[in-house]
Write a structure and sequence with these properties.
The protein has helices spanning 7-16, 23-46, 71-94, and strands at 54-58, 64-68. The chain has one domain. Helix 2 packs antiparallel against helix 3 (71-94). It is mainly alpha-helical. It has a two-stranded antiparallel ribbon with strand order 1-2.
Length: 107
């Protein structure tokens, strides 16, 4: 399942995972690892080591335009997403497990 992860994603997954994690937490960890890989890719673009994200589009009068995606803005959004995912993982681990019954069985 995690074989599509890059080096950063694998390291992040290994650092976050625990053998007692629920499936819900495991899915969040995998997504956090993917975000980690995206941040690494965005950083390589920002530092000039990676390929620039650009696309050709048709302009208003039929001219071709080159549109460059806002990589810095995307990196900030991905960093925020990663913080939220890690916070959610920690919160879910700290929450006590819900009891199996509804509390009415003793009535």
């Amino acid at each position: 399942m995690a074989s599509e992860l890059g080096e950063v994603g694998e390291k992040l997954r290994a650092a976050l995972e625990s053998p007692t994690d629920s499936f819900e937490i495991t899915v969040l960890i995998l997504e956090a690892a993917r975000v980690g890989d995206r941040l690494e890719q965005l950083n390589s673009i920002l530092t000039g080591e990676g390929e620039i994200w650009a696309r050709l589009t048709n302009g208003r009068e039929g001219d071709l335009e080159i549109r460059v995606d806002n990589v810095l803005q995307e990196a900030r959004q991905q960093a925020g997403t990663l913080r939220q995912l890690i916070g959610t993982i920690r919160r879910l681990r700290d929450e006590p497990e819900a009891p199996d019954d509804d509390g009415l069985a003793d009535l």
